[in-house]
Amino acid sequence: MKNKTRFVVFAGLSAALSYVVAKFTAFSIFPATPYLRMHFGEVPLLLITLCGSLKLGICSLFVKEILSFFISGSNIFGLISDFILVTPFLITTKLVAKKLEGKKGQILIASLCGAVVRMILCVPVNIVILKFQYGTPVAGVMAQMLYILPFNFLKSMLDGICISLIYQKLNNPLKNFLQG
């Protein structure tokens, strides 16, 4: 990224794309927890992180959360939780993908590693967030983990599958475009 203006423009564009994709692809997978909404809004964030930089991906995620708050009136606790969980997913996926560069299944393996990190972190994050948000005791949060853990895993892996399908075609052109 050659200058700050390009960085801000790309962060804003990928955040806006992420927000729009999330809004129009959201669906519930567990009837018992309709508030856990699956969507593909992390695909643009993951793509910009893998082809650009961690800083660009995380800034884009932050801007997406701000857009979600101001445009949709999304719950601040959910947005904080999302930011806390998606950030290490992006970091882990980027670092593992870089380590496995050129190897078969690079993005899927990297996404799997990111999904595992996200699942591990979702337990303490949800204990704290749900305590602040609803006063849910630890036992109540742990009972919800039956849905929260597979939800986070599926979400991460679906994002990884989507990226693995387009990464090889978009990696070099997007890297060149981002570098100007």
Write the layout of secondary structure elements.
Layout: H1 4-25, E1 27-28, E2 37-38, H2 42-51, H3 54-72, H4 76-99, H5 106-134, H6 138-179
Antiparallel strand pairs: 1-2
Helix pairs in contact: 1-2, 1-3, 2-3, 2-4, 2-6, 3-4, 4-5, 5-6
Fold and architecture overview:
With 180 residues, this protein is an all-alpha fold. The protein has six helices and two strands, in the order H-E-E-H-H-H-H-H. The protein has helices at 4-25, 42-51, 54-72, 76-99, 106-134, 138-179; strands at 27-28, 37-38. The chain has a two-stranded antiparallel ribbon. It is globular and about 50 Å long. The model has no long low-confidence stretch (mean pLDDT 93).
Give a quick set of tags describing it.
180 residues, mainly alpha, two-stranded antiparallel ribbon
